[in-house]
């Protein structure tokens, strides 16, 4: 009899363990090409920081959704005064930071004041320059007063740089980020991976995943092997578009192709290549389709200005700089620049390295010689981005709605145009959608007409994931790997 | 005198690549700098004997021009190594046991102590990646090899009777070194030279592979391999042909080195 009982218990526990094994998988390993330098999104510019922590660990008052629209996050709702200057946010109640302390209006005030402070190291300080004051009305109400109406303010607050942090824990956020998100930081094995675990006390809708690991694989060939071997469940920014047809043919995988905010451009040093005719000649020498086919294996949308084609205010200006080598040669002749040699400094991504070789060949066709130099990211940031020691470079500007960078004459293009700067200044003040559209379109036309840079293509988001994973973002409206809606199908 | 088989095979392989490199100056099957994206990743066939790469460039043409890059880098690098190393080795041997000998040889040890590729990476990191800097880097780590071989060979020749006779005749150490020592260790240097030559080709391929050698659009075997990495699974010809070219050249040069040693080394010759 005793034996029988034992047998039953054994059988029962066996059943139990079987059912556990058959339950949906609750952990995910996400591949990323670049490792973040730190984990404080309010103190660093690297996209990799947001790609780990945005929406997962840290949240702001508002947030980007998968389709690019803005949704409430920590703010439950808000009202805007009639003059467009005063924003009053109602916060969600019961929100806790991962260290157990409560998130309230004081934390919002601290975060925004810190981001717009004189000595702030925030990488997107311009998002906050319009704020005149932040006031705590009561623990769940915060009032933000702007110095001028700003139609884009709610969007600004959705950026990863505008997340709400706590005064007690921000000091160590670089290595131990403490936010309010559905995942808690668990462990960082430098050079290999970052692990997040589910936050059991999350204020909002609980996430399906219990554990998320971000694994860093910089080499595209190694990324291919890791995907094929199943070491990685999803690689949203898969670096080698040439492998996508193979993944597509394999039923184990789903290929996710969407759009990004990455305008891939042939950045031109406007101080060195100061003759507009030469820049126009470069623009007409470029055959965009050849670059998309050759460097990206067909993934990408041609652009004619620094603006995302999926944005409603986009103007298609590709015709303005259509491929026309004969015109290009004539322009060079008119500018007296027939024996031109330019440096072309290329960062590591394949769109730059391969695109660079193709552009070099296309420029050679019209008589412009290039000296290609392949740089690592650190060297590129040092020499090109900060040092401005370059003639041409190729890079993808992945921040959303970043046409405003052209208004900064100190930016590495060194484009200084008063008319354009006025448009951006006006845009900051405009809150009427029709006015904004008009200004944005005029700004697009201005930089395209000045041939500031060579406008190549909008970077596609090429991702590969296990076919059973649901809820990954298709498009990339901001730099993020939002795992809050991700789950495994049985 | 019968030529060793290794020497004949080695010469055969090497001559093919040298001829291909020379021919590339006047003729290649297709233009290597012109891209033809529409014809990318073609399999080997009649239009392109070894197929095309991801930009539609003809792989055979790229290999021919790449051979030129490899051989040029290796020749100049070995030249630098010999030009600096041999005089230093002769000097050290002529002043054997003096402070000069110590200085030269300890200096050599210092250069030797660094892994050679690390020196190369250091140089290209400081002065920027280019074929020229790769040449200098490879040349510098060739130097101590030649200095040692020269000194070792020269020391044993210095003890011979005809050198004693030359010294009695009043010849200076410099003249003895140049007129009597150098010709008698030439065989050693030639053998070492071919081996360093093959190592130079390997080093150039290695540096190009990590992006520190010849820069695009100049084709280079190492970079062809690096570029093909993610495409191996669907276009293996991109990796196989440059890989084979590197193997065949290095093998050929090593076989020549072995064969020459068999042919020139008096000790081995006597045994036969």
Short key terms for the protein model shown above:
heterodimer, A: 490 residues, alpha+beta, D-Maltodextrin-Binding Protein, domain 2, Dipeptide-binding Protein, domain 1, seven-stranded mixed β-sheet, 13 helices, B: mainly alpha
What does this structure look like?
The complex is a heterodimer of chains A (490) and B (272). Chain A has 490 residues and is an alpha+beta fold. Chain A folds into three domains: 27-34 and 175-258 and 461-488, 3-Layer(aba) Sandwich (D-Maltodextrin-Binding Protein, domain 2); 59-167, Dipeptide-binding Protein, domain 1, CATH 3.90.76.10; 260-459, Dipeptide-binding Protein, domain 3. Chain A is 30% helix and 23% strand. Chain A has helices spanning 2-22, 47-53, 105-116, 153-156, 220-229, 244-249, 276-285, 288-296, 325-335, 350-365, 377-386, 418-429, 433-449; strands at residues 27-32, 62-64, 70-72, 75-80, 86-91, 131-138, 141-146, 183-189, 193-198, 211-216, 234-235, 253-268, 301-302, 340-346, 368-374, 392-397, 454-466, 469-470, 487-488. In chain A, strands 11, 12, 13, 14, 15, 16 and 17 form a seven-stranded mixed sheet that branches. A four-stranded mixed sheet of chain A has the order 1-10-9-8, with helices on one face. The longest helix of chain A has 21 residues, at 2-22. Chain A is globular and about 70 Å long. Residues 11-22 of chain A have low confidence and may be disordered. Chain B is mostly helical and 272 residues long. Chain B has one domain (5-24, 51-266): Orthogonal Bundle (MetI-like fold), CATH 1.10.3720.10. Chain B is 74% helix and 0% strand. Chain B has ten helices and no strands. The longest helix of chain B has 37 residues, at 173-209. Chain B is elongated and about 75 Å long. The interface between A and B is medium-sized, with 23 and 21 residues.
């Amino acid at each position: 009899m005793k034996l029988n009982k034992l047998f039953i218990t054994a059988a029962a526990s066996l059943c139990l363990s079987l059912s556990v094994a058959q339950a949906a998988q609750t952990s995910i390993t996400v591949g990323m090409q670049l490792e973040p330098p730190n984990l404080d999104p309010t103190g660093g510019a690297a996209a990799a920081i947001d790609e780990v922590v945005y929406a997962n660990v840290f949240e702001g008052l508002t947030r980007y959704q998968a389709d690019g629209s803005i949704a409430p996050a920590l703010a439950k709702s808000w009202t805007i005064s009639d003059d467009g200057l005063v924003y009053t946010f109602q916060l969600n109640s019961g929100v806790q930071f991962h260290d157990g302390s409560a998130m309230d209006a004081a934390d919002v005030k601290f975060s925004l004041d810190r981001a717009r402070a004189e000595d702030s190291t925030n990488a997107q300080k311009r998002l906050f320059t319009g704020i005149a004051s932040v006031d705590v009305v009561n623990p769940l109400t915060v009032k933000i007063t702007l110095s001028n109406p700003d139609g884009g303010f709610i969007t600004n607050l959705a950026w990863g740089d505008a997340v709400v942090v706590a005064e007690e824990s921000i000091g160590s956020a670089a290595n131990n980020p403490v936010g309010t998100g559905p995942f808690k930081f668990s462990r960082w094995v430098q050079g290999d991976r970052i692990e997040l675990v589910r936050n059991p006390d999350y204020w909002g809708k609980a996430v399906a995943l219990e554990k998320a690991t971000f694994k860093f694989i910089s080499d595209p060939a190694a990324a291919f092997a890791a995907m094929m071997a199943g070491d990685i469940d999803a690689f949203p920014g898969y670096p080698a578009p040439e492998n996508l047809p193979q993944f597509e043919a394999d039923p184990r995988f789903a290929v996710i192709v969407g759009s990004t905010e990455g305008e891939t451009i042939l950045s031109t040093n406007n101080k060195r290549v100061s003759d507009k005719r030469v820049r126009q000649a470069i623009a007409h020498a470029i055959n965009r389709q050849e670059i998309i086919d050759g460097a990206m294996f067909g993934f990408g949308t041609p652009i004619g200005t620094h603006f995302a084609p999926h944005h409603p205010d986009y103007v298609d200006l590709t015709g303005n700089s259509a491929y026309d080598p004969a015109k290009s040669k004539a322009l060079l002749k008119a500018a007296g620049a027939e024996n031109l040699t330019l440096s072309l400094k290329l960062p590591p991504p394949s769109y730059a390295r391969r695109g660079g070789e193709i552009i070099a060949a296309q420029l050679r066709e019209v008589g412009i010689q290039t000296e290609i130099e392949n740089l690592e990211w650190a060297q590129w940031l040092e020499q090109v981005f900060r040092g401005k020691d370059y003639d041409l470079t190729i890079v993808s500007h992945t921040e959303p709605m970043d046409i405003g960078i052209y208004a900064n004459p100190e930016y590495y293009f060194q484009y200084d145009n008063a008319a354009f700067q006025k448009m951006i200044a006006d845009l900051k003040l405009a809150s009427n959608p029709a006015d904004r559209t008009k200004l944005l379109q005029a700004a697009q036309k201005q930089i395209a007409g000045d041939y500031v840079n060579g406008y190549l293509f909008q970077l596609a988001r090429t991702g590969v994931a296990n076919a059973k994973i649901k809820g990954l973002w298709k498009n990339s409206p901001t730099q993020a790997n939002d795992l809050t809606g991700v789950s495994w199908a049985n | 005198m019968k030529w060793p088989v290794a020497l004949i095979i080695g010469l055969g392989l090497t001559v093919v690549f040298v001829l291909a490199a020379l021919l590339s100056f006047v003729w290649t099957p297709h233009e290597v700098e012109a891209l033809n994206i529409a014809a990318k990743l073609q399999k080997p066939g009649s239009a392109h004997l070894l197929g095309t790469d991801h930009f539609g460039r003809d792989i055979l043409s790229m290999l021919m021009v790449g051979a030129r890059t490899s051989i040029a880098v290796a020749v100049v690098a070995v030249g630098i190594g010999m030009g600096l190393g041999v005089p230093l080795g002769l000097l050290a041997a002529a002043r054997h046991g003096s402070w000069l000998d110590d200085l030269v040889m300890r200096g050599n040890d210092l250069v030797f102590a660094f892994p050679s590729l690390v020196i190369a990476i250091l140089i290209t990191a400081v002065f920027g990646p280019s074929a020229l800097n790769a040449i200098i880097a490879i040349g510098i780590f060739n130097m101590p090899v030649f200095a040692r071989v020269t000194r070792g060979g020269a020391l044993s020749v210095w003890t011979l009777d005809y050198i004693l006779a030359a010294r009695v005749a009043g010849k200076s150490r410099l003249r003895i070194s140049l007129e009597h020592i150098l010709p008698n260790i030439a065989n050693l240097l030639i053998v070492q030279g071919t081996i360093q030559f093959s190592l130079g080709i390997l080093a150039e391929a290695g540096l190009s592979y990590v992006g520190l050698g010849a820069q695009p659009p100049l084709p280079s075997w190492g970079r062809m391999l690096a570029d093909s990495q993610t495409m191996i699974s669907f276009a293996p010809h991109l990796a196989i042909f440059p890989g084979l070219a590197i193997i065949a050249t290095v093998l050929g040069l090593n076989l020549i080195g072995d064969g020459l040693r068999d042919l020139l080394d008096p000790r081995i010759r006597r045994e036969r």
